[in-house]
Amino acid sequence: MGPREPRFNVNLSILFTELPLLERPAAAAAAGFTAVELWWPWPGVAVPAPAELDALRRALDEAGTRLVGLNFYAGVLPGPDRGVLSLPGAGSDDFRANLDVAADFAARTGCTAINALHGNRLPGLDHAAQDALALENLVRAARAADRVGAVLLIEALNAAESPDYPVVTSARAVELVEEVNTASGLGNARFLMDLYHLSMGGEDLPAVIERHAGVTGHVQIADNPGRGAPGTGALDFGALLGHLDKAGYDGWVGLEYRPAGASADSFGRLEALGRRAG
Question: Which GO biological-process labels does this protein carry (predicted)?
């Protein structure tokens, strides 16, 4: 039997944002999705009130949608931040305060993959010191994820849109995955392969897939240029999904693009790829 075709899930932090957060799971379900992902849903709030966590869990349950990807607290995202775990002081403190909150929410929703964004370089701060703090906090995140049976995801962004972010290549992201696995001894860190960011960085996407599929825990896609739906830019997603199949990747493919209009009207091109919503 050949590898299972990747299944699509929809990112509710960038799609269906025309709706309030608690209405988005039902909208995704109405569009044919049973699986969704989220950035940390409360930008700037590391520890939301229990009632807010409960309300989101109920919305996911009532819609019949499974959460398959979640971010640990990353500051104000969308916004100026690209994570806080490498930022001394309040940033790191907030990240640590969020670890068990996010892990417990993941456990209650059946989510088994949690992403941790490194954070931008800070002027005047020694890079080595910042990286040491990042590794320490990523090990903490790996332990929190492991406690609930989840993997820790580490993602490369792109330098054009995130010029102060230090993890902007697949090689560096995978290297960091290996550093965390060595330091934690858990082996549960994985690469989050975001094909849009890697394309923006000029990487050879088929080569990245061939080289790193074995350490990849999640895939995200958007077309380039424009970060729109598949088929609106120059990337050949039929071929790229084929490469993922051939490489043995059988996980989720998160739709993390900006729709040109209503989110519900943006999914028609997926049928042309021969894939179904998960």
Answer: glyoxylate metabolic process
